[in-house]
Each structure stands twice: as structure tokens, then as C-alpha cells.
Amino acid sequence: MLLLPMIFSRDYIGYLAHRTVKFLIDAKMITTTDVKVTEQRVHQALLDEIALEDRINEEVRVILEAYSEEMRKSGAQYAEMFKKVKAELVRKYKAVL
């Protein structure tokens, strides 16, 4: 089971998937013979993307924990280092966040 420690609830992500598919169909950007299946696929894609960011954030925390003593000695700011390390991991994984 996928845990979602994020700011969006599963219900809201389902709502976003529904509204996105409706918008794309109404705008004639996509066609589908099964709207529910399309909504489910969009819903899963949204969950996957959010989960990816959560995994990257967790990896950043682990990396920074390993360097916490060096950061303390050098006076590095945690928030600044978090952004830098996260940007590197995003590039490494070729993620779009």
C-alpha cells in the first residue's frame, strides 16, 4: 500500500484526475471510449508523481543526515542545502517536479 505523506488527500487527487480528464475531453484534446479507465490512469499517474517527490525528499533527508556534522561545522543552512541536494536528485532521476 502506498503511503501518501503529502498535502493532498486521495479524494482530492481523484477529483483532480476527474476534472483533468473532463477538461481534456471537453477541449477535444483527447478521446476515450472508457472515461472511468482514463480517470483511473490519470489518478495513478498523479499518485506516482507525488510519491516520486516524497521519495526524493526522503532521500535528501537521509543524505543531509549523513553530512549533518560537517554542515554544522561549516555553518551551512539546512533549508539551502535541502534545495541544492533536491535539485541534484531531480536532475539525476530526470524528474519533473
Through-space gap between termini: 23 Å
Strand content of the residues, in percent? under 5%
| Largest beta-sheet characterization | none
Mean pLDDT: 91
Radius of gyration: 18 Å
Structural class: mainly alpha
Number of strands: 0
Low-confidence stretches are: none
Helical coverage, percent range:
over 70%
- The number of distinct helices, counting runs of at least 4 residues, comes to 4
Element order: H for helix, E for strand: HHHH
- Describe the global form: elongated
List the helices and strands and how they pair.
Blueprint: H1 10-26, H2 35-66, H3 68-74, H4 78-93
Helix pairs in contact: 1-2, 2-4
3D architecture notes:
The chain is an all-alpha fold and 97 residues long. Helices cover 74% and strands 0% of the residues. The chain has helices spanning 10-26, 35-66, 68-74, 78-93. The longest helix is centred in the middle third of the chain and has 32 residues, at 35-66. The chain starts with 9 loop residues before the first helix and ends with a helix. The mean pLDDT is 91.
Please give a handful of descriptors for the protein shown.
single chain; mainly alpha; 97 residues; 74% helix
Describe, in short, the structure shown.
By secondary structure, the protein is an all-alpha fold. Helices cover 74% and strands 0% of the residues.
